[in-house]
Design a protein that fits this description.
304 residues; alpha/beta; TIM Barrel; 2 domains; two-stranded antiparallel ribbon; 11 helices; 12 strands; globular
């Protein structure tokens, strides 16, 4: 199981220089990958193009870029540009639906039949990435276009933020796997891993990647830290897609699925993910306390 770092700098108002420094630190420490979200600040694929140019070797990933605001041609062009800037096959393009409240209330776009939309989107995106052209006509997505990139720019690995059965089926049949958030170990073991593996097997595809992202903190005060997790990540207990996974886990909220405890406890929780089929664990090092951050990073380094 590979181990990566989910960077929180962009969400805390960090500068581009600070973001590059974060990636450089993760690379220096030996982590396999470094991940960025797409929120409401810097454009993530542009950031990864900059980071990839400045920081060598470490794999880069988005977790995740919402598909609705980006036409498939735009998404493919941005991803291939970031891949080219990184000078190697280093990019994982994690994409997702976002949430109804964001797409409809904030962006003013329709969120009707989201899984169907994702299927049509992938039918356009995947050929654009691999073959640089596509001609498809769907109910929601129709594209007839081509892209021009050097032959040595590889198509990035594509993951879908898939939690429900329809999305897991799409991810397993059409992409390289899934990237999850706020999804606990019981749900990963009983639902995510077997569902996406079955879909991939039915489509004669390789065993899919399962990238699991969770808040992670080493501390001697786990109860107090879980209280902080509950406040920092409160919104994820209400968004329907994550709420469904928390309910499946039997978790009251995000604090119950966070990886929190002393060194031995956190190590055991991460190692347990390997046993249930998680291929890559991405630690979300969210703490602002210098001691906790240092202990968390030190512990994570021992797992590399």
């Amino acid at each position: 199981m590979n181990l990566g770092i989910f960077d929180a700098t962009v969400g805390s108002g960090g500068t581009i220089d600070e973001i590059v420094a974060s990636a450089a630190s993760a690379h220096q420490d030996g982590f396999a990958s470094w991940w960025q979200p797409q929120i409401f600040g810097f454009e993530t694929l542009t950031l990864l193009a900059i980071v990839g140019r400045e920081v060598q070797d470490i794999a880069l990933g988005t977790a995740v870029v919402p598909i609705y605001p980006r036409h498939p041609v735009t998404m493919a062009a941005e991803a291939l540009t970031a891949q080219a800037a990184a000078r190697g096959n280093r990019l994982t393009l994690g994409i997702g639906l976002s949430h109804q409240m964001v797409i409809e209330s904030m962006f003013g776009m329709s969120y009707a039949r989201p899984a169907h939309y994702m299927g049509e989107y992938l039918a356009a995106l995947m050929p654009l990435l691999s073959e640089r052209s596509v001609s498809v006509s769907g109910d929601a997505v129709s594209v007839s276009a081509g892209l021009q990139f050097p032959d040595d720019v590889a198509a990035p690995s594509v993951l879908v933020a898939a939690l429900g059965p329809k999305m897991l089926d799409l991810a397993g049949r059409l992409t390289d796997g899934t990237v999850t958030w706020m999804t606990g170990p019981k749900t990963l073991e009983s639902h995510i891993v077997p569902s996406i593996r079955a879909a991939a097997a039915d489509a004669n595809r390789p065993v899919p990647r399962v990238v699991a992202c969770l808040p992670t903190c080493v501390t001697d005060d786990p109860d107090g830290e879980r209280s902080r997790v509950a406040k920092v990540f409160e919104i994820y207990g209400f968004l329907p897609s994550y709420r469904a996974m928390l309910d499946r886990e039997g978790a009251a909220g995000p604090a119950d699925v966070a990886i929190v405890g002393d060194e031995d406890s956190v190590r055991a929780q991460i190692e347990a993910l390997r046993a249930i089929g998680v291929s890559e664990f991405v630690a979300v090092d969210y703490s602002v306390d210098p001691e906790r951050k240092a202990r968390t990073r030190d512990l994570l380094r021992t797992l590399l």
